[in-house]
Amino acid sequence: MMAYLATRLMIALATLLVASVVVFTVLEILPGDPAQLMLGMNATPDAVAALRNELGLNQSIVLRYLDWVGGMLSLDFGRSYTYSVPVIELIRERSAVSLPLAIIALALSTAIAIPVGVFAAARRGQPADTFAMAASQLGVAVPNFWFALLLVYIFAVWLRLVPAGGFPGWTAGVWPALQALILPALALALPQAAILARVTRSALLDVLGEDFIRTARAKGLPRKTVLWRHALRNAMLPVLTIMGLQFAFLLAGTIIIENVFYLPGLGRLVFQAINQRDLIVVESVVMLLVATVIVVNLLVDLSYAIVDPRLRAAR
Amino acid sequence: MKTWKPVLAAAAFALATCSVASAARTDLILGMPLEPPHMDPTAGAAAAIDEVLYANVFEGLTRIGSRGEVLPALAESWTVSDDGKTYTFKLHTGVKFHDGTDFDAEDVKFSLDRARAEDSTNAQKGLFAAIDTVEVVDPATVKVSLKNPQGSFLYNLGWGDAVVVAPESAETNKEKPIGTGPFRFENWAKGSSITLVKSADYWGEPALLEKAEFRIIPDAAAAVPALLSGDVQALPNFALGDALPQVENDPRFKVVIGATEGETVLSTNNKKPPFDQLKVRQAIAHALDRKAIIDGASAGFGVPIGSHFSPANAAYIDLTGTYPFDPEKSKELLKEAGFENGIKATLKLPPVAYARDGGQIIASQLRDVGIDLEIIPVEWADWLKQVFTEKDYDLSIVSHTEPNDIDIYSRKDYYFNYDNPAFDKLIEELNLTSDETKRTELYQQAQKILADDAVNGFLFELPKIGIWDAKVEGLWENSPIQANDLTKVKWVD
User: Fold this and answer.
1) The pTM is what?
2) What is the nearest CA distance from B334 to chain A, expressed in angstroms?
3) Is 80 exceeded by the pLDDT of residue B192?
4) ipTM of the complex, rounded to two decimals
């Protein structure tokens, strides 16, 4: 187990290093000058030059890379070109929206998807299964911004239960903050739940066809016990993998939902930073996400071992 | 129990009357699509900076009013020497910055010197190019000497880029803006909102609102429900496009279509063949149906223009008839120029709706006369590099939003690649002239030259589409400069 962990950690570190080189190079070769962009079309060339100097853009690319990586090791992500505040501060502010949002959305989607998946698998081919799968098909197909707008018109414009968008910040209190997150979380959760329900169902069906299930049934175990304790547990591997991927997506791939609800999340930070060529922000956030994905994958790998004792013994 | 009833009734009555008698609302939440990158108008070109801070938090010696006129601000009055080269400003006294420091002539000198310094990162550094020296005569008097007379000097001082900042706070204004205006900055929740509150010790007429919040709503589809749900009460400048009809006929809101200073043009590379030939550019001009372009690019709003000048300006002349829409004439001109077999060129479009949508229409209109355009969408950063800086383009579409910017056509090396000594001479003369009648005449001559030369395809003046609660008054109808002046905004019943 220790050796397994050590190898996984080494791989994770190597991935991070490679990712840092790739991310930095790709963004540096993007055309466009942040200084020119900030000063606009009427700027005199010497003002642009002065700003480039101020932002440290005149240093060599290697020096800037080393500066950036070195800084990150001590958790100093540099200063945003446009906002001129430390990048880490921006990330912290945005994470206060994105992280809870991702967690709520994932919890919602899991709470919906697993029962639906199990329910459908247990009634394979029956009308209930067909209905559940048709509904999940719809959930995958409906564009989530459209669904989000529908939620806004029903709950904010018509019923006036929640604000149409925006985020008051956690300082405004836990309840107002949660209120602002509930519709976006729902809009994010449903398509994810639809996918997850389908994965759960098919994984479960695979397991249900296996010999040990027949053995369990033959032993006279109740259907429910066989389904929830024996089958589901063994079907969790693909489900966990998908959940891991979904969490990474929910953390930063939510730009469309963030736009509809005008939430100040990580997705919008990256999007805006790319447009404004605030490269240092893009680079740092992307690296942070790479790190998150690696950690989540590591956790998923480890959780395999918990779910499946055979993997534990093998290592 | 019974005895309580009248008391309760009286209390209820008192409450009811109380709420009727209470004053109108004094807070306003405005939605804006783009977030300012920072809070310092003297260090960035982003319109969003001025849209939050201009006239509200920061003030200059002069300011631009709602009709584009120059008004006194921190300068109470001024005199101009006979040779037009020396301006003496009499400043308001008793003015304080929001951090409590006093405003005086030293601050003016500091601000102007900082803006034109060698290491200045002022986005409009050119505005201050004519200044020779800034001299503090006494704490309430500043003397500015110019290298040469400049007719637009007082106007230039009214730009957001020319506001007065204090040496104590200049370096931190990006995060925590300290000005002299009727509102002071309170909070910026990045990515979310910016809050201003009324300044208690403002030197001039106090603001009518106690609090104003600018909320960043990047998507027009989200802005409308925000307005409908009452989360925001004004969208002062929002390209709503398809979403507009949803609120247009709602009596709770006012839809106000005004003008900006944005001349939207089909930018043309005047040095790149075949666009270096006047006949080709004239052919393009004849091929453009402005009405169809405005319908498609700007939901039918926007005034057609025939030169690079705002219809809101007093010196404007309508030159849309110079080369009227006439595809046959256009084809004829192309034939005369030797292009009977047509022209192939590229059209690089920045990521704004008017350009992307307008580009499709223009490409189809030009195809009708034999000019085949390949549309290349580019990002802003890429546009600035390829088109604006490197001039690697044939045609593009962009709105030039700086006010009174006809002089860009006299700039050497500007991306139009236009070079006309007669025009340059006019602009030079305009610079040296401060007599209004004479200036108007020169402006009109300049407009005429650009129209005749068909330098660019002149399309339309970008509209300002504003929607706000019908009970809100005092927001600007037009946008002579990019600002949301809240100094006169109030709620009425």
Assistant:
1) 0.86
2) 32
3) yes
4) 0.82
